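Subject: complex prediction, re-run

Hi both,

The earlier run crashed halfway through, so I resubmitted it with identical inputs.
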Amino acid sequence: MAVDSDRRPWNLRESYLFDRRAIAEIQRAAREGIYDIRGFGAKRRLPHFDDLLFLGASISRYPLEGYRERCATDVVLGTRFAKKPLELKIPVTIAGMSFGALSAPAKEALGRGATEVGTSTTTGDGGMTDEEREHSATLVYQLLPSRYGMNPDDLRRADAIEVVVGQGAKPGGGGMLLGHKISDRVAEMRDLPKGIDQRSASRHPDWTGPDDLEIKIQELREITDWEKPIFVKVGATRTYYDVQLAVKAGADVIVVDGMQGGTAATQDVFIEHVGIPTLPATRIAADALQELGLHRQVQLVVSGGIRSGADVAKALALGADAVSIGTAALVAMGDNSPELDDEYRELGSAAGYYDDYQAGLDPAGISTQDDELAARFDPVLGGRRVANYLRVLTLETQTLARACGKSHVLNLEPEDLVALTVEAAAMAKVPLAGTDWIPGVVR
Amino acid sequence: MTAAVMAPEAAAVEVVDLETTSLRELNQRLHDLSRTPGPRAWRIVNANGAHAVVCGLDAEVEVEIEGHVGYYCAGMNKRAQVRVHGNASTGVAENMMSGLVVVDGNVSQSAGASGHGGMLVVRGDASARCGISMKGVDIVVGGSVGHMSAFMAQTGALVVCGDAGEALGDSIYEARLYVRGRVTSLGADCVEKELREEHVAQLRSLLEAAGVDAEPSDFRRYGSARQLYNFRVDNAGAY
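This time it finished cleanly. Structure:
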């Protein structure tokens, strides 16, 4: 009998609807009686920057010499109202990830890596640690609905403030740090007993809606004497309206996190079924700023599934001023390393698949609060790897920008792009490759 | 220090008129007091509902505000004693760290939200979500509080001399709630608890500090049943 590569007879037919994964999940749900909570980001196939290509130079466009002519990468965030905007050397920043979700050495490594290449890192739900502040030359402090650890001293020693309305992995959802990740230190920082599940609210406790947000931003500016740039971060959903409302509320910088954005602990059903991909969100956000005449005056930071310099360059070409990375930074530090495959398999996973950040059992010592596991992680080496990775992202971005004839990576533009698929063409509003057709755009 | 002693000497008081001085200038002068010497007693007139009045203070000063204030008055307060001779809008003393904030009138939503320390006293009523996500602040309300007060309250105490609206203490952690009047309903995982001697003593201390004349034994205590501290699917109906 003929068999396939998995040695199953060809006459067996797997259901498209009830495939092996769907069947396994039904069986798991029936067995455990609780939804699947996990980390990482969306794993389903989604339209993404892979579906775009750069056109490169030609007779009508000339390139820059790769190893001779300068292609600048600096970016300034927060030029609208803040007295002290962030001056970054590269357009790639580190996204907010909490101490609690991540170990203290992992947070330190992110700060070290970002600082080495002249960019910023970001706190998370749980507040600012001294190690993080010490090792981060430029640190963005998140104001989250939970307000865990929030205090005016940290607001003032931050370099920017990010009001988090939502995140791409779970727009409209709060958070949950499970009890087994609540160490003494995490409990103390969050003013809660050790060992209990710590819920992070989905709404801010003292404002609702754009009019309130405007007053909240005014308060934050007053407390910090109008020095700090104010970011507003939204999960990508109604992106056009969210961007315009955040601008109206007075934001200096808008952060749009697409649905591929990572998380430490969220229901799988939420990760895979809420929000819109980063690709359309980027274009929508840039268009919303352009309509207001504020593109490049209110800076746009995009996150959610950034892996390579190609992703960075395409996001910038669609109108972002910078991108932010989370999952990729964890991978750079050693998350999902093949060297740990045996240990991942003992946990029921495997290198390349591990997503149980909520469990606190990470053999890489990154998404854990277990002292022994965390001690495995070397923050100096981790920081070096983050810096190396950020340098590669930057070099790749420059390579593509030079090929398009740009002396600054922010000079990349939609005209440099074409799409490989009809859906990507419609979402990015660039022509389908080989045609002048942009679905939905009447010329 | 109790609320009753907040009466700075008239001769030493720095008076700021918000009709002629910008909010930015007022707040900057007050913030500078954390680094440089200056007046320790202030009187703000013509507040006229301005937002973010005297927020972010970090100095041992006494500030009296004449008139009503808008959102986030005395937000994130540290050490300062602030008294509002009027009403206050949303988020008065939000995330306060220490010191004392007194409002003679009524306050709107989210009074004392996520406060970490110090004391907030409201002589009148407080609207919805009073003490939401409180993290150590003590709040004393002379009148009643609206619905969802002390939602997800972590630590600290909320004292309500009047009534409490629907879903008091929903998803509460370790905060202590004391209510003298009627409670419309309790939120998820919030239950009435025995008022023991230690609670009477705490209540007496809080009432005295707030300058409120009330008998501690007239109050009832509420707190967490601690049944929802760790997620169990059997409790799904409670969420």
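Chain A touches chain B through 33 residues (CB under 8 Å).

- K.
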